[in-house]
User: What shape does this take?
Amino acid sequence: MSVSQTHGSGSAAAGEKPKVRLLNDPKFRSYIFQGVLVVFLAWLVWSMVNNAAINLKNAGVASGFGFLSNPAGFGLNFSPFIDYSETSSFLDVYWVGLQNTLVLAVVGVFFATLIGFIVGVARLSNNWVINRMAYVYVEVMRNIPLLLQIFIWYKGVLAALPGKRNSLDWGFLGQLNAAGLYAPKPVFAEGAGLIGWALLVAVAVTFGINRWAKQRQVKTGERFPVFWTGLGLVIVLPLLAYFATGMPVSFEYPAQGNFGPRGGMQIIPEFIALLIALSTYTAAFIAEIVRAGILAVNKGQTEASYALGLRPGQTLRLNIIPQAMRVIIPPLTSQYLNLTKNSSLAVAIAYPDLTAIFAGTALNQTGQAVEIIGMTMLTYLAISLVTSLFMNWYNAKMSLVER
Amino acid sequence: MSDLDSQTSLDRAEAGALRVAYVRDEMVQPMEPPVSEGGIVGWARTNLFSSVGNTILTLIGLFLLYLILPGTLNWVFFDAVWSGENRLACATTAQGGELPADWKAACWPYVIAYFKLFIYGRYPDEELWRVNLVLLMFFAGLVPLLISSVPFKRENIIFMLGIFPVASFVLLSGGNLGFNGFLLPDALMAPSAAKFWIDYLILSAIIVGLVYAYMRATDSDPLRPSQFAAIAMAILGVVLLVMSVDFGLEPVETSNWGGFVMTLVIAVTGIVAALPLGILLALGRRSKMPAVSLFSVIFIEFWRGVPLITVLFMSSVMLPLFLPDGVTFDKLLRALIGVALFSSAYMAEVVRGGMQAIPKGQYEGAMAVGLNYWQSMRMIILPQALKIVIPGIVNTFIGLFKDTTLVSIIGLLDFLGMINLSHSDSSWATPVQAMTSYVFCAFIFFLFCFGMSRYSIYMEHKLNTSHR
Assistant: This one.
């Protein structure tokens, strides 16, 4: 305010244009206003940095990212893909945390989508029982805090399972007890890599066929059964590779020992509780999105495709779903983001995700609050931004092109 | 219609005259619909067993219900223990009690024994009337606000946003804040309450003077804005005065607050603080000034891109670092700052959505009648935009209300934090203790959130004036 004041009176004194004062010029005013905002923000940031520097100096904490290469000195009970030991550095802790967050998010997104689509379609069912059950599911899940649901699964359900010595036998799924799920562990012998390659080739070929089929349909109007061909390829090619290389993949089943199951791979209860809570909670929101998306397609579309002679299945597949997807995808992506962000609640039950071990344990051990919280927040922010960039691109690609 | 009637009566008259045997001259009574079409049977036929697939679905649904419902009802009601003094009431024979070994159901006496802690936290017993008074004021002010037919909306809003927050602050904390002054150097006058008020008077004078000078410099009428500034400063002064007066209330530290009351305090404060911030950010994001809109976009997207728990970590660990030496914030206040900043970003997007829905003609019309930017926003755009985003605001509040449970992770004893704390009490320690308390907590949250979501759907229908 005081800045603008001096400028105003200065211009009035110069008096070049006595009719309109410089302060009444919208352009000049906006410059002043923005200038004041920038100066204020700069002052805020400067004073915060200054205070932080003084406070850290008083507390005797060294600032900077040097701590990342120091050994962390604590063990972690879950790291499916990255080798981690107590001698690993804090940077490794960061990577393991990020890995665990992403593993949880990816598996959670898969199950949330599956349950969400089923419940969303069930919500539109003509069957009264199914319809009401889906409604109750959605309302119960949406209106109970996620953190509470995580606690219910972790401390209420999984903790009440039998102990290690008398675990529940779930057959080929493995053995379940209070210490988690002991799932069969795949053992890859020599040549197993070929199966993976075969799968990749099958996926690539399917994409190729899809392109070709679309072009052909545009040219000739004939349709090609892309889905069934693709499904066949994805199943048959890896199977062929499996037998051709002499069946190199086997499963190591957990065996019941004296002190609990041995062998197999242990999936910790924290992971299971979080997975169930996150996917069932997010599924309720996805179900509503799916329902709204299908309802958003005009009834005339269905009638028009019946008039053209399409069967109900074809109508759904060729007409309704492609249009509903246009409405569904953007909010669906933001639900996926929400799930990823919500996976940070892992800290409440000590699943070693990014927030729990990096912003929690590592922060407590080093005291480098600014660096660690900053890195954690920027990581989540980066995930969000990348996803929204993708979403914008997709929206632009899929949006209706009007004349 | 009348033509047709006269036509038929004419026919009838002719028929009467002719008495043709095969022409019926009275209406046949309508038959009852077949049993299979009406009543419960008909309903079941169309809704449950209309086809083979539908029948299979019904059976699957009923089977699922059979799996879920009896067990749940037994757990909550029929097998549950309803009275007792300590853990022995809910212990099986193996755990030293008298219940059968395979007993598993809710242990309600534990919730009853802890009910006061779950709701009020560790607020002193003899001061509980203060909390009850605040709750009473809250609901007494909120309910007429939500029912649109009740008059005095303006007075009601002033009460809820002006009087209620100050009164509840004084009641809950005890008020009697000590202000020491902030403007004049200490050498001139020793820090005291008197110095604070002198400082405040000087500040008010400076602000009113600045407004007056600015208005003169822009050739506008300086009187009304200066009056407005003076009144605003006077109201703020009264608020500060009320907060600093000693009403003789016992001060209660925020570390003694807790339970469901704390959950309400965090959620309501969060949303009340987020609303004005969110409106400012929404205006900023739609501003034509690049610096302002860039700042708003970065601010909004930053808070929306990070999880709330990292925000709470930040406000509890990092915020003290950013403050000058000697300035400390209460733990609750730190959490409140985090929650308010976080939800203001979401609120900004909700408000922005409402502003985008206002037709461009409204903006142009406001300009055409000569209103300036703030006038057109205050009198034309925001009243309409805020009205259509009421459901969005309620939904944001539901989200925030559920998210307040996260403060238990940073060590505040809100509803969920209190429940987790109660698990360490060995006098009620049984295997069903955790589940019982969580079911109770879930029930309370469901009641509030479901009620609010119903209200938001009701408002949506009410506000939906589009012709479909």
